[in-house]
Amino acid sequence: QVPLVESGGGLVQAGGSLRLSCTISERTFTTYPMAWFRQAPGKGREFLGIITWSSDSTYYTDSVKGRFTISRGNGKNTVYLQMTELKPEDTAVYYCAARTTYYSDSIYRHSYEYDSWGQGTQVTVAS
After folding, report:
1. What is the CA radius of gyration of the chain?
2. Euclidean distance between CA atoms 7 and 19, whole angstroms
3. What confidence score (pLDDT) does residue 83 get?
4. Cβ count near 80 (within 10 Å)
5. Alpha-carbon gap, residue 80 to 54, rounded angstroms
6. Which one of 31, 73, 92, 97 is CB 3.0 to 4.6 Å from 114, fit for a cystine?
7. Confidence of residue 49 (pLDDT cuts 50, 70, 90)
């Protein structure tokens, strides 16, 4: 496991943009597959997308494809979620996650496949 710290949430108008950050808050030279999830009130945790460890390839769920972009910083210990064309239904607590053991370039879509989680950051999109 690694400690993950998220930042960047807030209130934004529909159609606006927001960028979330997720940083591994300990010194590491290892690159992990990392993903973003979100959880709206009364709903389960929804997978949004993943960035792979070896090539930084990305994969997105259909609901955010074309609007959200995951990228990794040059230092490899920070992952970003750039969100554009935000909608009220994007309102949720957003979580980043890392898989630190037994990983490949597979697309890990389920929350149980990750062993490290950020604290969550609230994103509210006003209509």
Report:
1. 14
2. 9
3. 98
4. 19
5. 17
6. 97
7. very high
